[in-house]
Every structure is written in C-alpha cells, then in structure tokens.
C-alpha cells in the first residue's frame, strides 16, 4: 500500500476563528474603502481576543464596532451562546474581552504599493504555489477533498443540532494509492482511514456520539468506489468523550492552518498566510492566481497534475519568477519549459491584473466574502472567482 493523509478543521476551531475574525475585518474595511490596506493578525486565547497589525483605510471602525465584528463572526461560526454547553465548556460570545492594537501601514511600504502610474506593486516579497490534479471533479487532491466533505457534514449537523454536538471539529482522511506509481499518476484506490473528532454535550455517552458520527460519515456522499465502511479504518473521538472545546481550551492564531487552507500537503506552500491581508498582499492574491493557472493546465488536459510557483519583490508589480512543474505528467507535445513560457507571455500576473481578474477589491455577499473563504478554505471551492475555468480555450490551444 501507499498512503497519503490530509486533515481539515471546521470554522469552530480556534485557529479558524482567528482567520474568520481577521477576514471579517478585511471585508468590512474593503467594502467601505476598496483601497484599504490591511494586515491585521488575530490571537484568540480563552475569552481574550487580540487584534494587532496595520490598517490604512478611509473606513473608520471604533473599538465598539470591532467588538461587534468579532461578536457577529463568533455567532455565525456557531459560538452563539449555546445553552447546552456551559461557559466553562465552550466560549460564549458575550464573555469576550477584546484588545485592539492596530497601526497605520508604513509609508515606506505604501510608496511602492500604490504607484503614480496606477499600477499596484506587490505588498510584500514572497513565494506562492498553486496546484491542481485530476483526482476529483474540482481538480483538487482526494484526501483533503474528502476530509472537507466530512467536516462540512459534521459541522453543519452540529450547527443545526446544538443540543448534541459542538462546532470545534477536526477531520482527517488517509487515501491508499496501492503503490507510489498510482500516487504519481493520480489514481487513488480507496479511502484507507477516517478520523473525526467532534465535541458533544455532557449528557451524551461516547457510544451514542460514535454511532451518530458514523451515520454522518456514511451519509456524507463519499465516492462509493473509494469508501467501503467495512474495509475502512474509522476513528471517532479516539480519546473518548470530548466536551470542553473552543478557545477556552485551545488558543488560536491567524495563519496557522496553511496546509488545511490550501492543498492538504500534496503541494508546497508559500511563506505567508492569506487571511488578515488585503489583495495587494501577494501571499493572498498570488496563491489565487497560481491555483487558477494550475487548474487551467489540468482541466485543459495538458497534464494530470500541475504545480505553479510565482514569486514577487516588494513594491515591484511583475513577478520575479514563474515556474510550472507537471511532475512528468505533461502531454508529449509539451514540456514544463513551454508551459512556463506560455504563462509568462500571456498573463502579466501583476497585483493589478490579479485584482481585476478576480474582483478582489469588491468582496460582497453576492460574489464572495473573505471571511467565508477563511471558513471554507482558500482554494478548491467552485464558486470562488479564482476557481472559474474562464480561459480554458486559450490553454486547450496548446494541445
């Protein structure tokens, strides 16, 4: 056998709470002023929430308004004062104590970002990786895809049934590829192991919890050709009964779930997080662009898998490098050098180009909200603008 594993955490995990709060702030600022510059980290520990970093915006937010943003984000996540969990077992939103430590963006950085020509320079230096493969219909790796499906199933049940489960949930899926050759050619053979951990109310016994979650696993819609309940190893709350949860029992920090947010370990990740940052920060926008390119390469039938690396220098608009790696799966008429040249010649990939392409300066309930992206994962959701296969013909012409 050849095994590969990915994990996912729910919006109720303390690290995700920090990401969602940070991006709720990004949404509020950019919706009020599309040229807002934001890098606001969030730390959640117990009842304490600290917002720190830098903000330059015409949108003015008072401390009381920040507190409401935090409160509303927690309620939306599912920390809404659930009476079935005590204030010692789970965070209740009315108990939060907020500290806001925000400064203005350095003018030395800003002069390179907002340029007189109208171009936007990269808000920081760094490297970003985008990835895609043929393992699932949305061109995402299988282990993280199925871990997300399970998380969403259990999380949605928890929100709808607060008298049974809490929202601080983890899932993990191990795929068996049979042999490494199948892994390299994107041919998973079966789901080998599933792990689900979810908090329950104190009145439930562990056997009831495990039976409930097993039903949710079986009803989650995992592919029948890959999931056989009788052959799969399944761990549900493996340490036993799990009641106390949330930031009262595990601190959270922005940007600590980068692999969960991206490709589940199937591909390298860049050096920076996406959540808490405005669109000029290429840690965010560069990832979206790299994923968009990689997805087009695979969807066009040019390769079974593709990794795209983009790098930037702070204050410089055009990337310092672009590289495509198809892991030897590219079609015979092409090679990685030609693909890399094609991308460089056809897509400028400046922050301005990326912003306009995906309308990153226009978050809204009708299009996308950064807080929702933080909750669901930065890539791999078909309704995100950077997941649209809107230039497929251009890539297909290379065949």
Question: What secondary-structure arrangement, pairings included, does this model have?
Answer:
Layout: E1 3-9, H1 14-32, E2 37-45, E3 48-56, H2 63-77, E4 97-103, H3 107-113, E5 126-133, H4 142-160, E6 170-176, H5 180-184, E7 190-197, H6 206-218, E8 233-236, E9 252-253, H7 258-261, H8 282-299, E10 305-312, E11 321-325, H9 336-346, H10 351-358, H11 370-376, H12 392-396
Parallel strand pairs: 3-4, 7-8
Antiparallel strand pairs: 1-6, 2-3, 2-9, 5-10, 6-7, 10-11
Helix pairs in contact: 1-2, 1-11
Describe the structure.
By secondary structure, this protein is α+β, with helices and mostly antiparallel strands. 33% of the residues lie in helices and 19% in strands. The chain contains 12 helices and 11 strands. It has a 4-stranded mixed beta sheet with strand order 1-6-7-8. A 4-stranded mixed beta sheet has the order 4-3-2-9, with helices on one face. Strand 7, helix 6 and strand 8 form a beta-alpha-beta unit. Helix 1 crosses helix 2 and helix 1 runs antiparallel to helix 11. The protein is flat and about 65 Å long. The two termini are 34 Å apart. The relative contact order is 0.18. Its cofactor is Mg(2+); K(+). It holds the Pfam family S-AdoMet_synt_C. GO terms for molecular function: ATP binding; metal ion binding; methionine adenosyltransferase activity.
Share of residues in strands: 15-25%
What composes the largest sheet?
A: 4 strands, mixed
Helical content (DSSP H or I, runs of 4+): 25-40%
Query: What separation lies between the terminal Cα atoms?
Result: 34 Å
Strand order of the largest sheet: 1-6-7-8
Please, what is the oligomeric state?
Answer: single chain
